[in-house]
Amino acid sequence: MESTITTYNIERNDIGNAGTVASLTKRALKRQGLSREFVKTVTIGVYEAEINVVIHSYGGEVTVEKADDYIEIIFKDVGPGIESIENAMTEGWSTASKYAIENGFGAGMGLPNIKAVSDEMDLHSSKEGTTLRIRFYITEDCYER
Amino acid sequence: MNVKSIINNHHFTLINNETNLDNKINKLFASDLMSHVMGFAETEDCLVTVLNNINVLGVASLLDFTGVIFSHGVKVNDSIIQKANELDIPLIQTKLTTVEVINELHKLGE
Ligand SMILES: Nc1ncnc2c1ncn2[C@@H]1O[C@H](COP(=O)(O)OP(=O)(O)OP(=O)(O)O)[C@@H](O)[C@H]1O
Ligand SMILES: [Mg+2]
User: The domain that contains A24 carries what CATH number?
Assistant: First the structure.
C-alpha cells in the first residue's frame, strides 16, 4: 500500500494561477497510467473546487492524497464560508463577484459538477472557513489498457 | 474536421503557432461559462467562445481541446497567445458570431 500526499496553497483572487492544482494532478495521474476518462473526471472536480477557493474565499490550502485505490483531495479555506450549503449545491445558484463573472465563472454549476464526478463529497462550512473533501475510487478499470 | 480545414475558410484566421493543426476535432462546443464547459464538453472538442481570458486556456488544456475559436471578433491579448503556444493549442479568430461559426463549420461536416 503506497500513499503520497502533496499540499498546495491557493491565493485569493489569483485567477492567473487558478487551475494549477488541477493541472499538476492531471499530469501526475496520467504518468501513473490512469485512463484519460478517469483523469478527466478527477481534473473536473479539482478544477471546480480550486476555482471556488480562488474566487469565493480568502484563500486556502489543498491536500492531495493518492493511494492505490483512491485519490482524495481536501480543500480548506479561511472564510467567509457558505451561508446555505443547500443553496450552494443547487444548479444555477451563485454569489460570484463581478470580477469572477468577467472571467467566465458564476454559472452556479461548479459544486453540482463536483458532486456529479466524485464518488464521495462532503462540504462543511462556517464563517471561519469551508472544507470540501472529494474522493475518487481507483479500480482496475481506471487504468489505460 | 480539423483546425486546418477550419482555417482554410476565409472567415477564420489562426493567430498563434502552427501546431496540432491536423488533430481531429471531436465536435464544436460553444459556451462562455467555464463550468458549463467543464461539465458538458468532451475531450478533443474545439471550443467556440467570446470569453477572451487566460482561464479559457486553462480549461482547454485540462480537457485536451483541439483548439479554441474566438468569435464576434473579440480581441485576444498577447498573454493568451503566448500561453497557447506553450500548450500547443491552436487559436482561431473570426468576426463571425458564435451562431454563424456553427453554421459555417457545419458545412465542413465531420
Ligand atoms: N470555498 C467557498 N467559500 C465560500 N463560498 C463558496 C465556496 N465555494 C462555493 N461557495 C458558494 O457556493 C456558490 C455555488 O458554488 P458553485 O461552484 O456551484 O458556483 P459558482 O462558483 O458561483 O459558479 P461556477 O462554479 O459555475 O463558475 C458560490 O456562488 C458561493 O456563494
Ligand atoms: Mg464554482
Answer: 3.30.565.10
Task: List chain A residues with CB under 8 Å of B54.
Answer: 15-16
Q: Tell me how far CA of residue B6 lies from CA of B1, B12, B46, B60, B102, in angstroms.
A: 7, 7, 11, 18, 11
Give me the mean pLDDT over the A120-126 stretch: 98
The CATH class given to the B3-109 domain equals alpha beta
- pLDDT tens sequence across A4-40: 999 999 999 999 889 999 999 999 999 999 999 999 9
Closest C-alpha among B54, B67, B52, B77 to residue B5 = B67
Domain ranges of chain B: 3-109
Query: Residue B110, SS3?
Result: coil
Closest residue by CA, ligand 1 atom 8: A52
| Cα of A128 to nearest chain B Cα, Å | 26
Q: How far is the CA of A94 from the centre of ligand 2 (A)?
A: 8
Centre of ligand 2 to C-alpha B100, Å, is 30
ipTM of the complex: 0.92
Does pTM top 0.90 for this prediction? yes
Under 8 Å between Cβ of A114 and A45: yes
The residue segments making up the domain with residue A26 are: 4-142
Query: Residue A55 CA: which ligand 1 atom is closest?
Result: 21
Pocket of ligand 1 (CB under 6 A): A 48, 52-53, 56-57, 77, 81-82, 88, 93-96, 105-112, 130; B 34-35
